[in-house]
């Protein structure tokens, strides 16, 4: 029968402390990267907003020019290259202006993904270290309980470690020492 342990956090101070220390560096690194990206995203947003204001001014000026040109009978002809150029420029500037909204939406999505990934990474590393430290604290827990029983005067039977536990050599040496003390 395989040995199992139901409780994963046996030594809170050790296991949670180790897990928290394991999470701190990646968490701060990711947050620093997010901060730098957020700075540049904010700067990009300011530049886009300034450009959009300029584009809006160009659109308004072009519309005024178009209205003026269209009031001239010779320019009302749809085949007139000037009228056609003004219409095309209006479409292009409107497309550029519309792209701003898409850029802003994409920036918010990227920021949300970075935040979610940071939280997930932190949780995964934390629980991975809880699981890993359990393989260390488990044998220490067994040895501590054995020493408590030994001090009370009883000698519990040898209990093998679980298949994936760490500290196997130390555990074997501990048992050899306890057996010597029993004799």
| Structural class estimated from helices and strands | mainly alpha
Can you count the helices? 3
Q: Quaternary status of these chains?
A: single chain
The counted number of beta strands is 0
Q: Point out poorly predicted stretches.
A: none
Mean pLDDT: 81
Question: Level of helix content?
Answer: over 70%
Helix and strand layout, with pairings?
Blueprint: H1 12-71, H2 81-151, H3 168-182
Helix pairs in contact: 1-2
Short description:
The protein has 183 residues and is mostly helical. Helices cover 80% and strands 0% of the residues. Helix 1 runs antiparallel to helix 2.
What distinguishing features does this structure have?
80% helix; mainly alpha
Q: How would you sum up this structure, described in words?
A:
The chain has 183 residues and is mainly α. The chain has a domain at 12-133. It is 80% helix and 0% strand. The chain contains 3 helices and no strands. The protein has helices at residues 12-71, 81-151, 168-182. The longest helix has 71 residues, at 81-151. The mean pLDDT is 81.
